[in-house]
From TrEMBL:
InterPro entries: Cation_efflux_CTD, Cation_efflux_CTD_sf, CDF/SLC30A. This is Co/Zn/Cd efflux system protein. Belongs to the cation diffusion facilitator (CDF) transporter (TC 2.A.4) family. SLC30A subfamily. Signal peptide: none annotated.
Length: 148
């Protein structure tokens, strides 16, 4: 019984940490989302791209898109509504997109170009996830209960 409690407790803790650390949802294909954004002819470039899990079953996206300098505010709003509609079909419920012209001062890198600590935050999450996977494999090995 203790083994079952330990095993199920591990899964709950792992899932909770994934939400608290705003991890990318397992059910979302980031490449597919980027392709979806690029299908809109008005989108010239995408950068500062983030997808994370807000709560269980609620996914969020934040990014910047570069559009033509000549687009009106109304055209921008129409584009954003069309993008939000498509992303909702891809299981992204909360969308925040900043539209910019090509005159912005961003690096143009697809994923966030954090200042200061570089990629330290990304390396920490990768290492943390590796540790969780190692623990998960050990728990499965030592506490596998037939029929569960």
């Amino acid at each position: 019984v203790a083994a079952l409690v330990l095993r199920s407790g591990f899964y709950v803790t792992k899932s909770s940490l994934h939400v608290l650390m705003e991890g990318t949802p397992d059910t979302i294909n980031t490449g597919e989302i980027i392709k979806t954004l690029k299908t809109f002819k008005e989108v010239i470039n995408i950068h500062d791209f983030h997808i994370w899990l807000v709560t269980s079953g609620m996914n969020a996206l934040s990014c910047h898109i570069v559009v033509n300098d000549k687009m009106s505010i109304g055209e921008n709003e129409t584009l954003l509504k069309r993008i939000e509609h498509e992303l909702n079909h891809k299981n992204i419920q909360h969308v925040t997109i900043q539209t910019e012209t090509s005159n912005n001062n961003h690096s143009g890198k697809l994923f966030c170009d954090m200042k200061g600590k570089g990629e330290g935050h990304l390396n920490f999450f990768i290492q943390f996830n590796s540790i969780l996977e190692l623990i998960h494999s050990k728990i499965d090995f030592y506490f596998t209960v037939p029929g569960f």
